[in-house]
Amino acid sequence: MIGTRLIAMSGGLSAFFLGLALLVYVIPNFVPEPSYSMGDAPGPQAFPRVLAWGFLILGGMDAIAVWLSREATTWHKPEALGRLALVSAILLAALLATPYFGMVPVGIAMMITVTTLASGQRLVPSLLTAVLFAGAIYFIFVVVAGIPLPMGELWD
Amino acid sequence: MDHIALVLEHLSKIELLILLPLAVLGGMIIGAIPGLTSTMAVGVLLPFTLFLDPLTGVLILVGIGKGSLFGGSISAILMNVPGTPAAACTVIDGYPLAQKGQAGRAIETALWASFIGDLMSVVALVLLAGWLASFGQKFGPKEFFALILLSLTVIAALSQSGLLRGICGGMLGLLLGTVGLDLVNATPRFVFGSDNLAEGIPFLPLLIGLFALPDIIEHYMSKARDLKPHVIDKTRYTRADFRKTLPTILKGSAIGITMGAIPGIGATASTFISYAEAKRSSPDRAEFGKGALSGVAAAESANSGTKAATLIPLLALGVPGDVITAILLGAFYFHGLTPGPLLFQQNLPFIHALYIALFVSGFCILIFGYALKRWMTLIASVPRDLLYPPIVFLTIIGAYALSNTMFAVYTMFAFGVMGILLRRLRIPAPTVLIGFVLSELLEDSLRQALLISRGDVADLFQSPLALGLHAATVIVVTTVAYRAIRRSRFGKVGSAEAQE
Fold first, then answer.
1. Strands (DSSP E) along B84-123, which ranges?
2. Residues of chain A neighbouring B455 (CB-CB closer than 8 A)
3. Measured between alpha carbons, how far is B331 from B43 in angstroms, rounded to an integer?
4. How many Å lie between the alpha carbon of B498 and the closest alpha carbon of chain A?
5. CA–CA separation, B163 vs B172, rounded Å?
6. What does the pLDDT look like over B203-214, one tens digit per residue?
7. Contacts of residue A81 in chain B, CB cutoff 8 Å?
């Protein structure tokens, strides 16, 4: 029960800790104040600081409100998380492979893999859809519009 | 005379004449397929419109949005699944009509209600936007700051996740908008040593990542099965039906226009208000929920009535009221146009050409609606499993094409992950996007106002207009918070009584 309530509180807690991280570490280190002054106008840190305080206060209020309301929520089932991991792995692999193999070949491979592995569709319609679509995209971008797509280091 | 020539010059471009009807048609098809949202379509296609002239680019996006609003009713009627959130109310009476073998009649009712709602909405836009823009000329930095704050608050307050998370989402968008070089001091903010981030977070990858990718990933996670739609029959929407539903359509359109012109309320809420009003005032209220034509007419006229009305605050003041208008604001900026009073002073022929094209796009809905009628069953049954992978590929190409760098693609995937996390944390992504789009304007207005007042915060409340807008913000927050507290108290009382 505590676990599910913590999940319900995660939105508020995330906002709270984001505000805290911004105030304590991120803003002081990654938003430098200029060495010169612009009169009485607020500096570059002012607006992010206001937002950080907002996250801290509203996130804290939200977390407390959820705790008091005894709202509980559930996470996804393991099989759904498995499918999430599978699709994410395919997309990540496509992202990493694009500079080496080129955008169009990787796109075709990605479309076929997602359609067959994640959706369980048959290979032939997946292959047809992927090749036709990638061909159309290549034609529109490279041939008609003259926009170069990454062709891949492997083919250079 | 010169003015008319300039308007005609805008309208006579061949790509506009071809692409506007295609955009409406595409929007209708997208809306008809459950799981493909207009936000996803507009986001994915935005990069490709940036290579066109401003009017065509903006109108393609508007056309897709308009077409998808009607398209959403097709799957609502044929499959009991709203194609878009705004069609949620159409399901209530549309699907029972299809079950009774009157799907054709229900679709034609939705079509005429959408057409009339859309035309009335464009008339309202023409009448009100110019007036509001001239009023907007009175706005200085502190009034703009108060107006944007009010708009963000209303949008956050009306989000389904509640006031606190809605505001947190808006603030996250505002924070993301501060990344890059500070406009006043030119000092880097949150760039973490990256040259790419010095120019700020690119709008398009953020948009596509937040709205297109999470929908697709969620589809694979839930592994939802495609439903089989009803077949369109030969029943028609007769003149007698038209006479009977016209008062409901007119009332629904008026509700849609009013709700659309207020930032944050949007099409979905307006359909429920319109439906409730139609049911309350109907002598046949027992028919509602069992297949009342007036139920379909009320919902569809209201959601189409919002469409052009959402452009009123956008064009006149530069304030977007929903995700689609936030995307349109981004498109305007890309084309070097800044919506607001100045747009009416400097680009009036553009505005008038936009009005005319919006009228024309309304007729496109009617024409394509009838032309597509016999194909609707086929369109609604397109398997999403085959559609989503090409959409992912299109998002990658779209993100890449804008800057010709892989950085945009990586950014898009990073925001895709953020979009999924936001859904799990129940922080509404639309408020993040609207906050991001308005961030620069809000911070600039605040800093300018404080520079003028020499750092005196009290001066922000000195003008009557700014004070009125701030008061409205306080009223919105107080009302929503009070209702939330009351609901939770009554909820507890209710559950305690139930236990007893």
1. none
2. 39-42
3. 10
4. 17
5. 14
6. 888 988 898 888
7. 221
Chain A positions touching B443 (Cβ under 8 A) are 47
Two structure tokens written together for B479: 């009302």
Split at pLDDT 50, 70, 90, the class of B494 is very low
- For residue B418, give both structure tokens: 């953020």
Q: Cβ of A148 and B389 within 8 Å? A: no
pLDDT at B148 over 80: yes
| Residue in A44, A119, A148 closest to B385 by CB | A119
Nearest-Cα distance to chain B for A52, in Å, is 9
Give the pLDDT confidence of B470-482 residue by residue, as tens digits: 999 999 889 888 8
- The predicted pLDDT at position A2 comes to 56
- Pick the residue from chain A with its C-alpha nearest to B448: A41
In the prediction, which pLDDT does B1 show? Answer: 59
Question: Mean pLDDT lowest for which of A35-49, A57-71, A79-93?
Answer: A35-49
Token pair recorded at residue B285: 């209220």
Interface test with A, best of B152, B197, B397 (most A CBs within 10 A): B397
Residues B192, A134: Cα–Cα separation, whole Å: 36
Q: d(Cα B152, Cα A41) in Å, to the nearest integer?
A: 24
Query: HSE (CB half, 13 Å, CA atoms) of B172?
Result: 29
More confident residue, B226 or A46: A46
Mean pLDDT of A36-61: 87
| Cβ atoms B482, B475 nearer than 8 A | no
Which residues of chain A make contact with B410, given a CB cutoff of 8 A?
95
Contacts of B339 (CB under 8 A, 6+ apart): B314, B315, B316, B317, B318, B329, B332
C-beta atoms of A11 and B455 within 8 A: no
Q: How far is B313 from chain A (nearest CA, A)?
A: 25
CB B321 within 8 A of CB B313: yes
Q: Give Dmax over CA atoms of chain B in angstroms.
A: 78
Distance from CA of A156 to the nearest CA of B (A): 18
User: What is the pLDDT averaged over residues B19-28?
Assistant: 91
Q: How far apart are CA B109 and CA B242, in angstroms?
A: 8
End-to-end CA distance of chain B: 78
Chosen for mutation from A22, A40, A47, A141 (greatest number of chain B CBs closer than 10 Å) is A47
For B431-463, what is each residue's pLDDT tens digit?
999 899 889 889 989 988 888 888 888 888 888
Among A80-84, B70-74, B121-125, B474-478, top mean pLDDT goes to B121-125
Neighbours of B44 (CB within 10 A): 24
Which of A26, A57, A62, A68 should we substitute to test contact with B (largest number of B Cβ atoms within 10 Å)? A62
- Which pTM value belongs to this model? 0.84
Mutating which of B187, B445, B477 best tests the A interface, going by the most A Cβ atoms within 10 A? B187
Cβ–Cβ gap B396/A103 under 8 Å: yes
Split at pLDDT 50, 70, 90, the class of B491 is low
Q: Quick one: pLDDT band at residue A74, thresholds 50, 70, 90? A: low
* Chain B nearest C-alpha distance from A26 (Å): 8
Element (H, E) at B181: strand B180-181
Say what the pLDDT of residue B242 is.
93
Residues β-bridged to residue B189: B180
